[in-house]
Amino acid sequence: MSAQTTKGRDFHRLTPVWNIAFHAVAGIFALLCVFPFLFVTVISFTDESTLAKNGYQLFPEKWSVEAYTYLFKAGDQLLRSYGVTIAVTLIGTVIGVVFTALFAYAISRHSFKYRNFFAFFAFFTMLFNGGLVPTYIIVTQLLGLKDSIWALILPLAVNAFYIMILRTFFSTMVPDAIIESGKIDGAGEFGIFFKLVLPLSLPGLATIALFSTLGYWNDWFNALLYINTPNLVPLQSMLMRIENSMQFIMQNSQNASLSMGVLQSMPQDTSRMAMVVLATGPIVFAYPFFQRYFIQGLTVGAVKE
């Protein structure tokens, strides 16, 4: 029996052991990623007095929904903020993905005469921008989007970094032969783009859509700048206002005798954790819908025959 055959058999004997070890390491790493969110969720359902007495515990002595009751006192305003955030996220993601895909596809085609100019134009905005004051003037005065839902959508609609990612994806995964076959069949540029290019680019589009969704969902700065109407305040901005109100009461409790009663009944730490759960929960449940395409977008083209 040759030495090579012996080594092969020894390797096959060790393979199940290595598989178990790799799965164990991957499981531990996944647990470490998920554990912080689970721990925050547990704290948000912990009684405030128990938390003050025993500190943070994975299995608290007393459970409570007082933090969520305190936050949901806003009632209709909280639901309205959820609705605004969902609408902004859906509309903004669709607009952003469409415009990003159109721009990236154009500069990825070698037949486009001015592709280098527009690629440099997009890349230049990654290095330099006009600044906060000019942006504010354009949005509020030139475009007149003050106190408008579009002020939450348009500033984040097109991202130069996403354009560069998608341009590379189009250049790598959409060969010129497919484009030429569409032209031979008589399809126009938009027909080729929507019927041939987009179906082949779902992993890349899903990756950009996920990034865009996270950007819109977590955005609070644009609402701080452009939104004064309570009915248009998104979720993240509203939670920040609740947090600021709690801090104001805590800081001024010594100057007002009536504030002490309010302060004692206020779930301070657990409310902060409940805010995290309310802000991140929908994204956690939405991520599995993007996961398959997201992984494909990261690994596509990694192995070539």
Automatic annotation (TrEMBL):
Membrane topology, record value: Multi-pass membrane protein
Homology family: Belongs to the binding-protein-dependent transport system permease family.
Source organism phylogeny: Bacteria, Bacillati, Bacillota, Bacilli, Bacillales
Main subcellular location of this protein, as a coarse class: membrane
Subcellular location: Cell membrane
Any single Gene Ontology cellular-component annotation: plasma membrane
Name of the protein: Putative aldouronate transport system permease protein
Gene3D superfamilies registered for this protein in UniProt: MetI-like (1.10.3720.10)
Span of domain ABC transmembrane type-1: 82-295
Membrane-crossing segments per the record: 20-45, 82-105, 117-137, 149-170, 190-217, 273-290
One Pfam entry name: BPD_transp_1
The keyword S-adenosyl-L-methionine is annotated on this UniProt entry: no
Keyword annotations: Cell membrane, Membrane, Transmembrane, Transmembrane helix, Transport
GO biological process, one term: transmembrane transport
Top-level lineage group: Bacteria
Source species of the chain: Paenibacillus endophyticus
